[in-house]
């Protein structure tokens, strides 16, 4: 009965769309298939791309340290200066609508590094901006381009990591890099602003992007079996055209099969609706802390901006603990299960929802100056761990439920 239910879910995902994902191509040698790559190659891809994504998420929050200086430099209000973070996150939200379909059409590698290259280039005008509109425009473009890694990597890992336990561990590695970036950003940003000036928040992002992005570029090949076969078929007469999946390139087909499909999936799949809303809330809480922490520790408690960024260490600890928990859950629970179903990903998410609610209440309840600062800073452990458990468990669950449409889901 349960297996029939799972099959019904998988069949219902097609949405009556004729452009269903291709079956596994049979024109590749076994050793050339991504799932059969050596473990060292697989995990070098996971680690290098995760570190590159760390820079993207770091760039979202390092800007917060420069807000007072940007206000003074361009004579703008605090709300206007704060738009640099808001527009960056809006870029995160809008970018996957293009990067996800592009990865289905052109493979994972090209869209991933195209977006990452544009992200690095955008840091130059951010660092050299002489007016606020220019700075805000390129902050938005940074988020839009940088979101390629957030949109594509989850689906990329599924291409070569087929065991559920491996996926869980890769999720933990990706989570540490992705969500430590926003918590480390304010600390490094305040230090850089104090010693070098606010423009160095963008220069540091550029330097990190060039270093980690170059390493990831060298270590990461194409992981889509369909695209690999298509590339190798050029000039190879031993592979017949009938064995190669070639997506139709017409504008109407592209719009119907790639750009509008995520919207139709969202509307028709109750799972996607509820998970998207809840995961968006958890993600928003992470970025809410970038204004919540400075207000609580700098404005209310009277700390310096440098000291006021140190409580983010508590959130970083929470993120790391949550990622360790996800990895252990994958190794000792999912790996030992005789039959794996996506719902086995949900217990950490349930625990995360409890931690997140407790962390929000804890932070607000201890915000008075009569309460020791350490009590309030400790709430960050629950805020960080709760947010990550909700987000990453939800991401892996949706990828496994939606199977061939995992990237479009993200």
UniProtKB/TrEMBL annotation:
Enumerate the UniProt keywords alphabetically.
Glycoprotein, Membrane, Transmembrane, Transmembrane helix
The way this protein sits in the membrane is described as: Multi-pass membrane protein
Query: Spans of biased composition, class Polar residues?
Result: 1-14
Cell compartments where the protein resides: Membrane
| Annotated stretches, region: Disordered | 1-35
Which InterPro entries does the record associate with it?
MFS, MFS_dom, MFS_trans_sf
Identify the residues that the record assigns to the Major facilitator superfamily (MFS) profile domain, covering every copy.
Answer: 45-410
Q: Name one Pfam family in it.
A: MFS_1
Q: Which Gene3D superfamilies match?
A: MFS general substrate transporter like domains
Molecular-function GO term, any one: transmembrane transporter activity
**Where mainly located?**
membrane
Membrane spanning segments where? 43-66, 81-100, 112-130, 136-157, 169-188, 200-220, 271-290, 310-334, 346-365, 377-399
| Any GO CC annotation of this UniProt entry | plasma membrane
> Can you name this protein?
Major facilitator superfamily (MFS) profile domain-containing protein
State the species of origin: Fusarium oxysporum (Fusarium vascular wilt)
């Amino acid at each position: 009965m349960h297996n029939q239910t799972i099959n019904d879910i998988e069949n219902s995902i097609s949405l009556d769309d004729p452009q269903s994902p291709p079956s596994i191509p049979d024109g590749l040698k076994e050793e050339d298939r991504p799932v059969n790559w050596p473990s060292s190659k697989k995990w070098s891809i996971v680690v290098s791309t995760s570190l590159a994504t760390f820079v993207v998420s770091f760039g979202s929050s390092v800007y917060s340290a420069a807000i007072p200086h940007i206000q003074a430099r361009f004579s703008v209000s605090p709300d206007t200066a704060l738009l640099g973070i808001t527009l960056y996150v809006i870029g995160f939200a809008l970018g996957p609508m293009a990067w996800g379909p592009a990865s289905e059409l052109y493979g994972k590698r090209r869209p991933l590094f195209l977006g990452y290259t544009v992200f690095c280039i955008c840091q130059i005008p951010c660092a050299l901006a002489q007016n606020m509109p220019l700075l805000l425009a390129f902050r938005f473009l940074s988020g839009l381009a940088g979101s390629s890694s957030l949109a594509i990597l989850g689906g990329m890992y599924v291409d070569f990591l087929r065991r559920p336990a491996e996926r869980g561990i890769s999720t933990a590695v990706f989570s540490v890099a992705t969500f430590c970036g926003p918590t480390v950003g304010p600390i490094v940003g305040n230090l850089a602003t104090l010693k070098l000036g606010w423009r160095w928040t963008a220069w540091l992002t550029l330097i990190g992007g060039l270093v980690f992005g170059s390493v990831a570029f060298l270590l990461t090949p194409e992981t889509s079996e369909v695209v690999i076969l298509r590339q190798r078929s050029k000039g190879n007469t031993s592979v017949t055209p009938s064995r190669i999946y070639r997506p139709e390139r017409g504008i109407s087909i592209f719009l119907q099969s790639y750009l509008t499909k995520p919207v139709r999936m969202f509307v028709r799949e109750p799972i996607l609706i509820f998970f998207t809303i809840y995961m968006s809330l958890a993600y928003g809480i992470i970025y809410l802390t970038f204004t919540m922490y400075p207000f609580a520790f700098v404005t209310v408690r009277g700390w310096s901006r440098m000291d006021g960024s140190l409580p983010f260490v508590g959130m970083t600890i929470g993120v790391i603990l949550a990622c360790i928990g996800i990895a252990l859950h994958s190794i000792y629970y999912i790996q030992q299960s005789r039959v794996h179903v996506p719902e086995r990903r949900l217990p950490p998410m349930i625990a995360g929802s409890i931690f997140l609610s407790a962390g929000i209440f804890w932070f607000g309840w201890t915000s008075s100056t009569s309460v020791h600062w350490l009590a309030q800073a400790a709430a960050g452990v629950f805020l960080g761990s709760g947010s990550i458990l909700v987000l990453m468990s939800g991401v892996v669950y949706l990828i496994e439920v939606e199977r061939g449409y995992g990237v479009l889901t993200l």
